[in-house]
Design brief:
The chain has 280 residues and is α/β, with parallel strands linked by helices. Helix content is 45%, strand content 18%. The protein is built from eleven helices and seven strands.
Length: 280
Amino acid sequence: MRKIFSAIFILFSSLVVIASNNLSEKINTLYSQDYCSALEGDYGDGLMSEGGFSEIEKMFLGVNLFSKKALDFGCGTGGVSVYLAQKYGMHITGLDINAEAIRVAQQRISNGLSTQLQYAVNDSNDYLSFVDASFDIVYSKAVLLHVPDKKNLFQEFYRMLKPGGQLVIIDWLSPIEHAWGPSVIALSNIDSFPMFAESIASYELLLQKSGFSSIEYENVSERYHAYNVEVCDRINKQNKEKLIHNLGVQGFEYYLEGYASVVRAFEAKELLMVRFIATK
């Protein structure tokens, strides 16, 4: 039970980080089967970040997905990749630092998708073991704020993309370059978990320095604020009794406070959610 109590601030993303062994072990401890199930109860089957399946469509708006080969960086329990494989016939490799999430994702593969999906644990982003020009698309949803060396990672993404390939990212950003406001600092300090602040401008510069020449972005903060407000409301009105049964009263209060803290950070204009599409 204590595992769930201590995981408040990571309610809004699955985690892939450049990590020490201790951090990797910590994530695997926090992301228990019960905790992953709680997230899926709020977001949808297999999903570990906001917006449901309609948000997946919005994330890839304008991107040709049919029969493409993709890397899902921070795949969590596989909900996004399963959805894309089923609807668009994509072939997707999913990576995540959390061994429990990968175990669940592998169980999610049906016989009909066995040739389209594969998942693996990845606990270091210094070099990803794929040959050059392996993928049409690399994507990551609400994960990369935990990566300190984004330039190195973006260079790896660039290397692995085919010419004309696209990097699609939705990530948590700050309006201030390399600094968080007090609401976000309070959120991250709950569990002393790393969150590396980038502004839109610094993020774009990192992508440029990694080789990407065509970069587009869209501020989708309003949408994600609404998602978190909706989750808070649903937790209070629909899921309260179940969560109290599973987590206890204190656990429920901590769980709800995680979402409420995100809402407050959006409303204080200290937290942004931004979609990037960068083309090789």
